[in-house]
Model the fold of this input.
Amino acid sequence: MRFSKRRKSEAGGGSRRFGLGRAIGLLLLVDFLLLRLWDPAPIEALRNKTFDLYQLIQPRSPYTDPSAIIDIDEASLKEFGQWPWPRTIVADLLVRLSQYGAAVVGFDVLFAEQDRTSPSVAADAIRGLDEATRAALRRLPDNDDILAQAIRNSKVVVGQSGFRTLPLDGDAGSSVQTGLALIGEDPTPILVSFPHLLQNVPVLEKAASGRGLFSIKQEPDGVVRRVPLLAQANGIAIPSLTLDMIRVARGAEAIVVTSDATGVLTVGVPGLSIPTDSRGRAWIHFAPHEPDRFIPATDVLKGNVNPDRIRGKLVVVGTSAVGLLDLKTTPIDGAIPGVELQAQILDSIAGGTLLHRPIWATGLEFVAACLLSLVVIVLAPLTGAGMLLVLGGTIAAATLALSWLSFSNLGLLIDVTFPLATSLSIYLILVFTNYIQASADRQTIRSAFSQYISPALVDELARSPEKLALGGDRRDMTVMFSDVRGFTAIAEAYKDDPQGLTALLNRLLTPLSNAVLNHKGTIDKYIGDGIMAFWNAPLPDDAHELNACAAALEMLDCLSALNAERAREGSASGQAAPPLRIGIGLNTGPCFVGNFGSDLHFNYSVLGDTVNVSSRLESQCKTYGVPIVMGSRTAETVKQRYAVLELDTLQVVGKSEAERIFTVIGKREAASSPEFSEFARCNDLMLAAYRRGDWEGALAMILQGRDLAKSFGVDGYYATMVDRIRSLMETAPPADWRGVTVVFEK
Done:
């Protein structure tokens, strides 16, 4: 039985083959790339959550100089009544803001209906008025006209809202819209779209310097990350409220839109280009919520505001009142007023801190995913799991660092989750595949080794691989050698048919090997047509002598069955099939068992005098005409279970001491039979006479037991003893002869 340690170069060479794991890795990489092209909601959500984490770690520093928030807060509602206020109050607010020097005022509220508090409306609504009073009320200026005049006297951008459902009065409002200067293809079909547009009353729309959408579509998880700077409502491309405020502040006539076949590239005004995604959306880098930047509307109306907080700024009028339900969720705040969101957009644009996810980002992420995954696919079979984990962790950390630096220094949003998730998934799949393959390989090796190694040894080595090391231990063992008699002549008959000889050997050695393994033996090696096996290793076997003897008898039974089968085959084919015969030597004694050899190649085997004697005993089967010859220790242990017969006292070559040798001719049934008792008695008397030189007495006992010897299949042994005694009768042995046969050949 041989085990060998592979050189690293050999192992590496085997691993460099393409292999199932790499094929699965490449297939999985293709699947991930296709999945990213599809970009389902979970993939997008994971990417967005990563960008949210970046903002949580490094939010935008507050930059409030460009904008101011006029807040219709709870205190203002308490002071001036519930919303909507009369337009005269809004006009007063606008006049105050103009006096404070606001650069542009944008309304994050909508005046979609006629003011019900206007005098003309009141004249018709109030009961009990006399006609003179009603006429006087109708002659008073309309509230909407008062607000329109205030709007005309200032730079004002009114807000509009995109609606999913059609308003009760349809898409009513002014037909006046901000002009667009298109550079490239018309992007309208791919813009964020709203089926319907809710506008202010026409008089306000016409009086305003600009009009823009304040509607913002949240992400599927309810978080606002991107806002459309240009959107489509009712089939019309409309700028956002903030973008039109910037246009008015800069005195530009139109919004400039640059686009190509992929979609929108930038939006802006002359001198200011704002990068967006293909649908005209901008990524906002949010600053933390700042309550101090809100200026209550009531303070403005009462003139209780430091003018520096408003002078020259882009002012957004909106509400933080909870009851008006204008709250938004951002990556860094659970809820902020919608008006603050508009101010943060203005701050980001003015400060140049908008985040940007360029069109090439997806391509870069694809390349990164491919490179990382290919590194894993190539290196996973070549390196250990620990080394690959360190290498993969280093690469992952570098990738994450590049993504973070792109965000923190350049404001670029480069997704790190897709490359890392792809490569990590492939790594885990390769680990799992390698585990499955290793398990299959171990099972294959276990199966293959179990053909010639004791399954117990295979299991032991699988549990304790550290035992595959040089060295051994001393223990009592039973060793077997078996050999085919006359194999040279058999091989000669097959000289023109080597395949036939191989098939014959396989037919012979397979059942013989199974007999060894069936009785807890370990096959050490095959020596041509012979088998070397041993018992009591690697696992302890207290009955190793009995098991070895049982294996030897089963081998003889298997040989008889094979010979009968070959005889039938020969009869059917008309070709003679001479019977096969084997000799088996068994010996018990101390041995060294373990791994012997070199660091590069070693055998799990046994060494010692017991092994040598067993080999010599096997060679004496031909001499004594019996199929099994065993040593005295083996015979002494098994004689209570098997029919054991003493053969001689032998001194093999290389040994200075003689040893009694035995054969086994049957199991317990034979041992307990009267015939065997009589035969054993005659045999013992024959050997006693032989050893004291009583040739006539020895021959007489042979003659008396010859028929029984034939019935037990050892008549060949008696024929040998007859020849030997007659030879001794002709040539007397030395005077000190004590019946010991000395063997001079191995």
Summary: The CA atoms of residues 518 and 695 lie 44 Å apart. The first helix runs from residue 8 to 15.
